[in-house]
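ARCHIVE CARD
CATEGORY: sequence design from structure
SOURCE FIELD: tokenized fold
FIELD CONTENT:
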């Protein structure tokens, strides 16, 4: 198998995982909704600045535009649910659920897009997805909450499930459109639609999106840059053909492992047994995709 989809998926994981780690800090300051809206806006501005260098090929047809609009709305609400889960829930509970979106994408791409998965590649993808779930889980956090009320454990779980499903569905739409319109246009569309939706829906949800210094903080700017690079990498992988969708999506899900790694580094925590197993499964899955699962 060509190295390009694997390397692009890993680049996406690094960028998105770093952005997800930063999102909790920003959400604590201005709220998860404000964070999502201004992350979309800064990503959009970054993409517009890069357009002259990316030289996108614009060949839109009405069907592609409609799909991108729908996917843009789905992707925006997926981020709302994701950041809500991270902000309100226990990370060790909600992260493994949210990062199962590659499984949703893989199943839907096979059912809806007719993607064929050779057995070896399917096993490798399953290994990566299971590895990401294990890496994102810290059972010590869960044991430490045994004596607390049950609602504390379930807070954010519903949002994480919704995020996983919406991301999975959105990326199937992106995977379908990208080979037709190129890798740049869908990213600009999704961030543009997300930004518009964020400002329009805010009054309905009684959310505050008034511009402020905190809304355009250095953290949000960094998130915008990372999201732009990550999404461009993701879509460039998809532009190589719809068959690459499960591979790129599964590897992008390793962003959960990236986010967990930052927590381990800054909090000086040790990997737990299940996280070591998860790391091993993820590495084995990537190795198989690179050298065996052609």
């Amino acid at each position: 198998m060509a190295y390009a989809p694997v390397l692009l998926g890993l680049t996406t994981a690094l960028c998105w995982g770093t952005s997800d780690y930063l999102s909790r800090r920003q959400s604590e300051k201005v709220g998860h909704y404000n964070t999502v809206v201004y992350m979309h806006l800064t990503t959009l501005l970054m993409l517009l600045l890069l357009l002259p260098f990316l030289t996108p090929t614009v060949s839109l047809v009405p069907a592609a535009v409609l799909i991108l609009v729908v996917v843009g709305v789905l992707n925006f609400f997926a981020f709302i649910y994701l950041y809500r889960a991270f902000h309100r829930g226990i990370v060790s509970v909600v992260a493994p659920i949210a990062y199962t979106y590659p499984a949703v994408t893989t199943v839907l791409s096979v059912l809806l897009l007719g993607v064929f998965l050779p057995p070896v590649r399917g096993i490798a993808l399953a290994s990566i997805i299971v590895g990401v779930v294990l890496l994102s889980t810290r059972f010590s956090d869960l044991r430490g909450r045994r004596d607390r009320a049950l609602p504390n454990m379930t807070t954010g779980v519903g949002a994480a499930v919704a995020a996983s499903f919406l991301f999975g569905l959105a990326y199937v739409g992106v995977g379908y459109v990208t080979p037709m319109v190129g890798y740049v246009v869908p990213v600009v569309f999704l961030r543009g639609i997300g930004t518009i939706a964020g400002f329009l829906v805010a009054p309905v949800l009684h959310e505050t999106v008034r511009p402020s210094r905190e809304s355009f903080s250095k953290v949000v700017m960094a998130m915008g840059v990372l999201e732009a690079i990550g999404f461009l990498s993701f879509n460039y992988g998809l532009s190589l053909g719809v068959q690459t969708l499960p591979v790129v999506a599964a590897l992008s899900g390793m962003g959960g492992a990236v986010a967990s790694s930052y927590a381990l580094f800054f909090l000086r925590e040790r990997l737990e047994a299940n996280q070591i197993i998860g790391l091993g499964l993820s590495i084995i899955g990537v190795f198989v995709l690179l050298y065996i699962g052609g």
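CARD ANNOTATION: The first helix runs from residue 3 to 30. Residues 3-291 form one domain.
SHELF: design records, drawer C
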